[in-house]
């Protein structure tokens, strides 16, 4: 039985959690489900295939656009109102893709759809923390994390199956209709968590919206060396995986001549490895500190990226690249949550604000880095992709060094 800090009944708890989980799943599925169809999208809209990774990176950058604003606004106006607005925006942008007739409009809608990610991270996550006691909130956050992992694992395969009967336009329309049902569930069952008296006797009061104060708080965070190291590390660590998601349709279907089903199957080893890394993290967490976990995770992380770089010299093949990515992904799964936790608690400021800026920086690094790898030809040659992905991931090592005990950044943070 979940223990809540707000006076709501079991039925409301169940539907509220289900609706939040469904909204997060839809925001990820809107990307992963459509990846097998992206070459068909560019062909039907008479656009160059280079728009395949660009559309994916625009989706990521859409998640950055509003995060800086959503945190303060939800503190002022309440989580419920903001999440309903975000859900409606995401659903409308998905449904509108059914009618597009140009790649420019399609890319604009991808940017708007990506904004739904910002609402999930900046509005729904704090709402869960405020509704439930600490232990239950952590468990539910872990559940949402698993949803985020299952989407890229199963999304491409599910997309291949659905595309046997539906067009990519109908897939977007279906996502829009499902989002409408989620919006209705949130409207009927989501409690407001700001400005209400909780069972522990405390009241989460709305915060006055001062742009000058908000800008000052953001500047203070940007001046926090430990925070910047952690946030930039998050983006660089995930960049090889993000680049693979965006460029895999070009590398596997267009370049290697694989079928969409084979493309979907080649995603399984990589994202299964991330889940394995998460399971190892869960096992080691009770007996290891966060810096110790990061140090252990760097072994598979670095070995996988070095093997990926070696693929360029020895002749890159689908098998060698995917195997190297899978080894790297184990290390990523072991370390990602630990680094995020270090970023979140690197400052005493409100966690909503810290989380918003962490998400903005890390997603911006992933989106811009993925775009750069695509521009220099990462989608046209498997060996070039392997070299760029390996180099970008290894760039996080100097930043991670600043998070480990005994380093100058660590010593400065303790003063």
Automatic annotation (TrEMBL):
Superkingdom of origin: Bacteria
Q: What is its main location?
A: membrane
Q: Which one of the record's GO molecular function terms can you name?
A: sodium:proton antiporter activity
Which keywords annotate this record? Antibiotic resistance, Cell inner membrane, Cell membrane, Membrane, Transmembrane, Transmembrane helix, Transport
InterPro entries hit by this protein: MFS, MFS_dom, MFS_trans_sf, Sugar_transporter_CS
Q: Which GO terms describe its cellular component?
A: plasma membrane
- SUPFAM superfamilies, A to Z: MFS general substrate transporter
Protein location:
Cell inner membrane
Provide the transmembrane region boundaries: 12-31, 51-70, 82-103, 109-128, 140-165, 171-189, 227-251, 293-315, 321-340, 352-376, 382-404
What is the membrane topology here? Answer: Multi-pass membrane protein
Under the heading PANTHER family, the entry gives:
MAJOR FACILITATOR SUPERFAMILY, MULTIDRUG TRANSPORTER MDFA
Please state what the protein is called: Multidrug transporter MdfA
């Amino acid at each position: 039985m979940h223990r809540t800090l707000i006076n709501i009944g079991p039925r409301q708890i169940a539907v509220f959690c289900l609706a939040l989980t469904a909204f997060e799943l839809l925001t990820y599925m809107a990307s992963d489900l459509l990846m097998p169809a992206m070459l068909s999208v560019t062909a039907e809209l008479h656009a160059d295939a280079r728009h395949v990774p660009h559309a994916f990176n625009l989706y990521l950058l859409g998640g950055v656009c509003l995060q800086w604003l959503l945190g303060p606004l939800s503190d002022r106006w309440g989580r419920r109102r903001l999440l309903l607005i975000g859900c409606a925006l995401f659903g409308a942008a998905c449904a509108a893709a059914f009618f597009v007739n140009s790649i420019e409009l399609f890319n604009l809608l991808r940017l708007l759809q990506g904004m739904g990610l910002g609402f999930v991270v900046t509005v729904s996550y704090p709402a869960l923390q405020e509704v439930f006691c600490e232990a239950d909130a952590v468990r539910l956050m872990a559940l949402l994390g698993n949803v985020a992992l299952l989407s890229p694992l199963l999304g491409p395969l599910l997309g291949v199956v659905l595309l046997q009967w539906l067009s990519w336009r109908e897939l977007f329309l279906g996502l829009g209709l499902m989002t409408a049902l989620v919006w209705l569930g949130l409207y009927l069952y989501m409690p407001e968590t700001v400005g209400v008296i909780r069972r522990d006797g405390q009241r989460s009061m709305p915060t006055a919206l001062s742009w000058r104060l908000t800008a000052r708080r953001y500047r203070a965070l940007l001046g926090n060396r430990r925070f910047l190291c952690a946030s930039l590390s998050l983006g660089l660590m995930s960049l090889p995986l993000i680049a693979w998601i965006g460029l895999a349709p070009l590398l596997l279907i267009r370049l290697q001549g694989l079928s969409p089903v084979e493309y979907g199957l080649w995603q399984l080893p990589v994202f299964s490895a991330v889940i394995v890394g998460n399971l190892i993290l869960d096992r080691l967490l009770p007996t290891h500190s966060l810096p110790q976990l990061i140090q252990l995770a760097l072994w598979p992380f670095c070995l996988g990226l070095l093997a990926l770089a070696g693929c360029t010299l020895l002749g890159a093949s689908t098998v060698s690249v995917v195997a190297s990515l899978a080894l790297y992904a184990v290390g990523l799964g072991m370390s990602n949550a630990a680094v995020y936790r270090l970023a979140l608690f690197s400052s005493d400021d409100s966690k909503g604000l810290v989380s918003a800026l962490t998400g903005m920086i890390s997603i911006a690094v992933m989106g811009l880095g993925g775009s750069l790898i695509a521009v220099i030809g990462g989608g046209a040659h498997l060996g070039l992709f392997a070299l760029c992905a390996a180099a970008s991931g290894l760039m996080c090592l100097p930043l991670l060094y600043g998070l480990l005990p005994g380093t100058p950044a660590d010593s400065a943070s303790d003063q």
